Amino acid sequence: MRIDAEELARMDAFATKDPHISVCIQALISRVVSGDPVVERDSIKLEHELLEQKHHWVQFAKKALRHILVVGFFAWGAVRRRGKVFPKVLDLGTYALEGEDEFPFHLSLSGGPRGVLLASGFGYDPTFEGHLRSLCYRARTMCLYAKEMRIDSMQMDKKRLRPQFFAEVQDRKAEIEGIDFDWYAEGDRFERSDAEVLDLLQKRKMLLGEKEEGQVTVLPRGQKLVTVNPAQARSDLANMLRNTETAIFSIFSVPRHMFDVPNNVRATHEAPQYFYDQCTQLGDILKMCLSEVFHGVYAKEIKELARGGKEVIDLKTSVYFVQTSRAELGDLRQLFEEGVLPWDVYAQHALRKVGIRSRIPEQGKRINLS
Question: Is the Cβ–Cβ distance between 57 and 289 less than 8 Å?
């Protein structure tokens, strides 16, 4: 099995250009990767060096999650700059993917730069035949169908603006030219006048495309205009496109109504439960990826701590993003007053709900935004 780099590049370009897929990917990424990364070891949050390079890790997380949604996997490598090490995701199209036809199915990179690792096993791995199984690939057929429907409708509208007219020969007497050519060919009775010759020359120019814009064309003698129904788009085109778009959004578990009311600020907070379940699942996948990448980037640090006498299981580090709670501010406040939520968790989610990115203040103190 082999998936060429060109195929991965085409899939990436398709996901970028198609409006349905791009808006679904953006909705999921903005929900899953929000805020700052958290480094946790043995249930204790650490003030790690990673937090000083959070910009690189946020960009890494967004790009890695996007590649998971587009092709089902991603390739990454460690980059050293100014004495700091941080991960970076390779662009699709810079490497190929190979797999052996045996169980267990093992994937490997081909043709990419050295020192690059493959991250897979998220439930979207390719098939034995070399077909992708990502969410974007599943929705690709419906996106192409909707695109073709829009193109056909546009072409039909253009034809309606410049309709074609058809004429047919009238059933008149044989004396009229064009009815019985054999009768004229056998005798010497037919002669064209100068006016008829000029009329034929004008019609010849018209047939050759030399008709001036706005010029009125006279039908040829002995012919009449035929009524033809012009091509029209389907009357149910809007419903068909809407149903197709709903199916595309359903593949990503993104509710369509989130984009139907762009001026409603609360529209993004009124998503159904399956959308939050999808975000939670992708958040768990991203947590697993970031944690493995952390141990790869900071392997030297982990080994030094292990030599210091610490248990390996205690050195297991988790890196993740805390997703904003979907509960309303009143519900968060009630959970805090009942003692279910501590102050820092309540303050963190409450600030994110109102769109304020600030350090969590001490309990009872105000935030200074100046």
Answer: no
Q: How buried is 297 (Cβ within 10 angstroms: 0-12 exposed, 13-18 middle, 19+ buried)?
A: buried
Token pair listed for 228 = 């033809």
Confidence at residue 267, expressed as pLDDT on a 0 to 100 scale = 47
Question: Which residue carries 């980037």 as its tokens?
Answer: 297
The residue type found at 224 is: K
CB count within 10 Å of CB 34 equals 16
- From 294, 370, 268, 222, select the one nearest 78 (Cα to Cα): 294
pLDDT < 50 stretches in the chain: 174-175, 179, 184, 261-269
b/e 128-167 (16+ beta carbons within 10 angstroms → b): eeeebebbbbebbebbeebeebeeebeeeeeeeeeeeeee
Contact 136/87 with Cβ under 8 angstroms? no
Model's pTM, two decimal places? 0.72
Which of 65, 69, 62, 72 lies closest to 20, judged by CA? Answer: 69
For 356-364, the CB contacts below 8 A with 24+ separation are 357/35
